[in-house]
Each structure stands twice: as structure tokens, then as C-alpha cells.
Amino acid sequence: MRRLSVILAICLTLVCTGCAPAAGQPSGERETGAAAALTEENASPLSTGAAPPGDIAESDTADSVTGVLDNTAGADMAPKGTAFRTESPEIIASAGNTASSAADKPIICIDAGHQGKGNNDKEPVAPGSKAMKPKVSSGTRGVATGKPEYKLTLEVALKLEKALDNDYKVEMIRRSNEVNISNRERAIQCNKADSDLILRIHADGSDSSGVQGMSFLYPSAKSRYTKDITQESLAAAKVLSEAILRETGAKSQGLKPRDDLTGFNWSKVPSVLIEMGFMTNRKEDRLLSMPEYQDKIVKGIKAGLDAYYKKSG
Ligand SMILES: [Zn+2]
Q: What are the DSSP E strand ranges found in 58-209?
């Protein structure tokens, strides 16, 4: 009996020491991978946004800016990044190809322009800038429908979220009109989500009721805040505009560089603002509220993204 229990004890010891390295190894790899990824995340904001930390610290932007610029940003960004990245290897191990393509999905940040109540409190138009602009303007309003822009942008954004569900990872800035999120905060939220592209959904207004058509805005190369994202934003805007105009048959107001938009100036990732049409034009206003036309806009955006990211079907 004693011999048997000794043998048993030896066996148990062997089993335990045998499984220890096997269990330890993958988790060690995961940690290393996550750490490397976080270092990369921190590196790019630091290199592009190093200029103005002194000024920012004194303003009310300090909390959010810390998240972007400061090295402690790692703490702020870590939970989300770590959760996402540690999850991936496990899925890949169990599900193979399906998961690796899931992990490769482009991340699209959808920002439905404006909100139920505009916020005229001011915020810096760019990191470290003394120029201030209202946090969120109230937007335009349909001359025929009476619909406020913020409702229209959310209608389209929610449809777009559904349409992108399979092939993209979507970060939604808002799913309700009852929010209070400034343009700077929207950009920072998209940055933190590690977005590949920010899509800002808006509609236009003009003093002239005859003006109609779609505009595609992108961050100007003239702005020192956005010159690093200009090229990719413009490339995306081009492909998107072609697809959306083809799908909707809308008149084109062209591609427009902007250096005065808070939402662009705080973006660290490529960004395109789609002005879907003029709510101050009676015909276009009505069209923009038609579900079929909204579906065309969404289909066009999806087709544009698919082309931009070279997906088939
Ligand atoms: Zn707008």
C-alpha cells in the first residue's frame, strides 16, 4: 500500500509539473502581446500631439487630454485595449479563421452630428489652442419637414450601424438624442476606440433655398493638428463620395478641406464628415427623411467603405 501511495504521489507531482509550463506559456505570450500593443497605442498620440501639453493642463480640457497625451494615458486606455486584445488570441485558438477575420475588421466610429440640445459652452477648437468654439451647435432644421438636423443624423447613423454590423466593428458616439457630448469629446472617444475611420454624419443648411447636394469634408493639410491624417481622410472621402453619389444620384458639392472644425482638429485618426444634403432645400429636405433615400445613403456609405477596405461583396 505504501509503495502504491508513493507511486501515486510521484505521478501526481509529474502531472502537476507537467501541466504548469503548458498553462503558463500562452498567458505569458498574451501579456507580452498586450503590453507591446499598448506601447504602440501610446506612442502614436505622443508623437503627434506633443506640442501643447503645457497650455492644456490649465484648461478644462486637462482630463480628456491626459487620456491622449500623458504617459499615464496607458492606464486610461488599458482596460479597453487589454480586454479586446487578450480576448482575441483565445478566440483565434478555438475558432481559427473566423476569429482572425473578426479581429481584422476595420473599426468605424460613427458620430451622428449634434444632439437634442446644443451646448454653447466653449471648448478649444484644437489641442492647446486659445481659439474657442461652442461645444455642440444646434444644427440646421428642415424647411419642409420641420425636423431638426440632430434627429435626421441619428436616424441615418442607426441604420448605418446595422448595415456595418457584419463586416466592421462599430463605435457609436450616440444612440440617443438625449446626450451632451462635445465635438472634442466625440473625437477623443473615437481616438480611444482605436478607430480606423471616423464618419461624421451631418446635413447642411444655406441662406439660399435653391442650394442642394452633398459635401464631403475632410481635415485640411494646412492645419498642423490634422496634416498627419489629411491624406488618408481625403482618400476615404473620395471613395465614399463616389459610392454615395452613385447610389443616391445626389448632386455633388464636392470634397472640402476644413481646418476650423473642432471634431477634426482633435482627431488622431482619419475622419470624414458627410453633409448628406441641404435641409434648407424643400425637395432635398423631404428626400432626406424618406426611409428609402436614407437606405440609399447607407448603402452608398457601406459600398464606399467596402471599396476603401477592398472587400468583395
Ligand atoms: Zn451639422
A: 107-112, 119-124, 132-136, 169-172, 197-204
